[in-house]
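Give me structure tokens for this 166-residue protein.
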Amino acid sequence: MAQSTSTASALPRNDQADVHLDPSVSRFATLGSLIYIGMGLCHGLVTLIDAVRPTFLGPANPVLLEQLAITPVALAPSMMMWSAYLGFNWSHSLGLLTFGSLYLLIVRRAPELLKRIPAFLLLALVVAAIFCLIGGVYWFYAPATVSAIGGACYLRAYLGLRRHRG
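Here you go.
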């Protein structure tokens, strides 16, 4: 027993346990991250449904859907447009999940990164703003609005971090 204690004390000390973010910074960064994780999960679910029975992401015109299923992609003629479209939606879901999960992991497991490098939260804000812009230009209002809310959470966390940085 004494040997395992001395071995444990010989290991480098983990200073992460001593680093805490201001509760409001942690709360808003966590909320922003959960919003993006939620968007990724919802988008993935909708994509899964559409992969089985086109319902949400496909064209409302069934004739156009049939055409997409048999129309090759110019870059890769063996790939059909509908398959490519589903693949793009799967990768979009994965990107949202990865983005949200990465920031949630940083906030919860490595808060010292945010304290030492506030640009991590600034980067999250920039990505959220880009998602909001893309949503407003190419999608419909709901993804743009939810992206704006996630971005506002990251902005609030960033401003709180800057205020509490001494």
